[in-house]
Amino acid sequence: MPQTETPGTEVAPRPRLRWWTELPLILLVYGCYSAGRLLARGDVAGAVDHGLAILRVEKALRLNAEHPLNRLFTREPWLGVPADFWYASLHYLVTPVILVWLFRARARHYRAARTWLMTSTFIGLIGFTLLPTCPPRLLSAGHGFVDTMAQYSAYGWWGGEASAPRGMGGMTNQYAAMPSLHVGWALWCGVMLWRYGGTRLTKVLGVVYPLVTALVVMGTANHYFLDAVAGVAVMGVGLLLAPLVLRAADLVRTRLSRRTAPVTQGTGSPIVSAGCQTSAGERIPRQRESRHDPAAGPDASPSDAGEGAPAPAR
């Protein structure tokens, strides 16, 4: 016996993702990311205090990866210049490329991966807002850091103020060091390459890319070690929250689809014959009353029962 679903309990089919709906969503999140960095400038004195506090914590924990890396990148241009290009460009190139690759080649996993990335990005914006932090390169020279982006600015398109193109440094928030979304996004890219790449090369790249990015952000004096740790933590929290965000989005979509769905009258079988019945051998149904209709009376003729009915006794 075929199984039937109870009306009203059917699960709405998940709509197929389209690039013309995904692209505006991605651009919206990136716009919020950029606007959040601009709006969360904070006061310079507070940002410097936060940066110095991070240095004190790292000193207490005997963590000092930034200074030796920064000295190495400053002393060796063959390391410092590629590192600056890495910091200024790959953050904005690799992540979109992997998103497009997932959308086209791993569509089954794209929606969850995209939600994880977006959720983590919004958490990072909260960090920029609540904890504006001066990066090592903007601390006074007495703290021993050199801004490699300014030192090697003649090699690239960026200026001495930030990794933005020349003349646009004032349009970025240079005090958004905590957490490091450079590291967070690189970790997301690495996980996607490791899980869905399918080849040994992509797995190697999945490990190398976030590790090198972490070294680059410290060597160029753009982030502290704890900024990188915070970037990893933000991605972890985003991973935990992503299923909840997906369920909430599905719930909203289901409710909206129910509101726009056409209303059907009644739940039972509609009466389409209006009493017309067709007996065996009949081409056109005839209107007849029920045998049990009291108005028909006991002597009602059974001729309406159809050609197959038995003849009455004489």
Automatic annotation (TrEMBL):
Residue ranges of the region described as Disordered: 259-314
Topology class, membrane: Multi-pass membrane protein
Main location: membrane
Source species, domain of life: Bacteria
Transmembrane segments: 85-103, 115-133, 175-194, 201-222, 228-249
Biased composition (Polar residues): 262-280
Subcellular location: Membrane
Pfam families assigned: PAP2_3
Domain Inositolphosphotransferase Aur1/Ipt1 residue range list: 53-240
InterPro entries: Aur1/Ipt1, IPC_Synthase-Related
Biased composition (Basic and acidic residues): 283-294
Keyword Zinc (UniProt): no
Coiled coil: none
UniProt cross-references to PANTHER family, sorted A to Z: PA-PHOSPHATASE RELATED-FAMILY PROTEIN DDB_G0268928, PTHR31310
Descriptive protein name: Inositol phosphorylceramide synthase
Source organism of this protein record: Streptomyces canarius
